[in-house]
Each structure stands twice: as structure tokens, then as C-alpha cells.
Amino acid sequence: MDPDLASLSIEVGAVLRQHRLILATAESCTGGWAAQVITHTAGSSAWFDRGFVTYTNDAKTAMLGVRPETLAAFGAVSLETASDMARGALQNSNALISLSITGIAGPTGGSPGKPVGTVCFGWCVRGQLPEVERNRFQGDREAIRRQAVIHALNGLLVRAKTMPSVP
After folding, report:
1. pTM of the model
2. Which of 20, 95, 137, 144 has the fewest CB atoms in 10 Å of its CB?
3. In the chain, what are the domain boundaries?
4. What does the pLDDT look like over 84-136, one tens digit per residue?
């Protein structure tokens, strides 16, 4: 495991344990990479419930409850879909916090409105509305996916650190 990713996983685990938060992930373009980074850390079962890899629109709908209307209106790579994915991960797990990642890692699949490297993220705390964000990363497919995982986990850290601990 890349030492930077391993270190990030340890930090995520420490913060989630400190706040007694359980995580679920919903991933598309990263294909489970965020969940793999998380489960690299021994003892992660104390703070990680499950990960959903929903690469197709059908999987997003079936596993996470992403509405077909959302996909039709905004596409799989959109803030709206990232929001639905983050909510769906919570609705279909025992987690208290979730993250979602959906994007275009390339080398093909981009468009003028959504070029290769466009990635949308969602973070959601049970009982709250999701927070979403869109970024554009540079590099080849591997670099884009790696940057997306790092960004998603860092975004999770920011949000988890500001939450009160669960009793």
C-alpha cells in the first residue's frame, strides 16, 4: 500500500473511532479503492461497515436507490447523483456517515461539459442533508482515481472532526 494512503487511512480511523462514527462508502469511478484503503488498516471493522461499488446506473439505482430521474436529468457524474449515492449508502447500511465518489477517470468518456477528470463527491451524516462538491483532476486514469480517493477521505476527515461524538 502507498504509504500516503496508508497514513490517511490510519488518520481516518482514529477520527472515526474518537467520534464513534461508522462509515459506509459508495463508489463508482474509483471502483472500491476508497474502501480498499480503509480496510488496509487493521481494526477498520470497528469503524467501517461496508462499501458499495456501483459502476453502472442500474447498480446505482438497485443498490443505493439513486432515482432514475436524477440519472436522466443530470447524469451519473453530477452533484445530484453524488448526493443520492451518499444518502443511499446510509439508508442501506448501519453507518452514521458516508462518502460517495462518481466521476470520469478516462481516458475516454469526457464531454465539453464534463471533461475527463471531473469527479463529484458526497458526504452525508445520518439525519442530515448531504454535502456535495465537484472537482477536476489532472493526469492519467490512475492519477485521477488516486486523487479522488484522497480528496474523498480528506473531505470525510474535515467533516468528522467537526462532529460531536456519538454516545
Report:
1. 0.97
2. 20
3. 3-161
4. 999 999 999 999 999 999 999 999 999 999 999 999 999 999 999 999 999 99
